[in-house]
Every structure is written in C-alpha cells, then in structure tokens.
Amino acid sequence: MATLPKKHEAFWGEKRPPFEESHKICAREVMLRKGLFFVVLFIPLIALGSPHGYTKSIGEICQEKGILPSQASIVVIKAKRKLFLYLDEQFVKTYPVVFGQSPNKQKLHEGDKCTPEGIFRVVSKRFHDEWSRFILLDYPTWDDVERHKEACAKGLIPLREGRCIGLGGGIGIHGTHSEALNRSEIDWTDGCISLFNGDIEEFFPYLERGDLVFIFP
Questions:
Q1: Quick check: is 108 in a domain?
Q2: Residue 33 belongs to a domain
Q3: Phi, psi torsion values for 209, nearest 5 degrees
Q4: Can you tell me the distance from the alpha carbon of 127 to that of 72, in angstroms, rounded to the nearest whole number?
Q5: Is residue 166 a contact partner of residue 109, using CB atoms and an 8 Å limit?
C-alpha cells in the first residue's frame, strides 16, 4: 500500500489525502522549488541568448566549465523555439526545436495538435526508426487531468459519442523525418517536441528515467 512521505504524513496526520492527492502535493512542491530555480537561471539566458550554440560538444563544454555530466534537466521555451540542456543543475547547451501544429496553445485534449506546458518527467527513451530517438514524457500529469476536467465542464473540448475527447498521450521529445521542416521552423508534430536528429542524438545518452522536463509558453 502506498504511503505519503514522512513530512507529508506528519502534516496530514490521520486526515491524509488519497494517494493521488499526495502525488499532486509532491509534484507542486517540486514545481515550486525546481521551477523557481530554473526561472532565475533563465533570465540572463533569455536576455543574452545561448553562449554556446552549436560551436562545442557537450563533453567539451562540461570539461571547460567543470560540470559533472549527470542529473540532466531540460527546459523548453516555446516562444523562443529553444531547448536548454542542464547537467548537474548548470546550463550546458541550447538547441532549436519545433512543436505541434498549434504551438502557441496549451494542450487540452487528444488531437488538438498542441504541445503541453508544465513540468514533466522522463518515462523512457528508445531508438526510433523514423525520428532517430524518442524520449517519452509522463503527460498527462494530474495538473493536465484537472485542466481537462475544467475545460470539459466549460464546453471547450469537442465531444465524441457524447463525451469529451480524452487527454491523449504519447507526448515526447524526438528527432525528425525531415530536417528541412525543422530548419524552416515549421511546426509539424502532433504535439511532441522535435529537434534535428544530430541534436537529440547528442544529449540522448545523458537523460535518464525521472529527469525533469520544464515546458514554458
């Protein structure tokens, strides 16, 4: 039987929330702590742009800056069309990305072609015949479920057989079948984040199950 972490157990006592509620508490705690950390780091990056770009490899950058190549984190800024790679909580490198065919909206349901925004974790990663590499994220999270419920109640989600279309799934980070599309900044996916194949192949080995992925508007 699942139990709450001790600090949450002490707080809630006998009136502890259901198991799924405890996950929400932990997720929001991580969001506040890690989210604020990355936002603070991002202010100079957004203002100055990437100091590294494609000029050096991850290994070269880590060696020069004395960064331990472990504990990877990813931050994606949709408005900037950039993916920022962190290792050991230090910025390493940035890559250009494209998104779902409706890139400026938050994902609400299956088939809306939107890329979700929020804090996610890596579920798994694998080689892909068409897109070189695929990194699966844990969408939908509990926040996505709540957002979907609210949107459904407001009539914002299309119906299928009298019920709101579900949230969908299978959202991840992957390469491309056409580098020309990515080079032209054409948003072509069904909601995933796409990079040049060489780019995802470079940082793919550093990511592990459970690593954090932040996706901002």
A1: yes
A2: no
A3: -55, 130
A4: 19
A5: yes
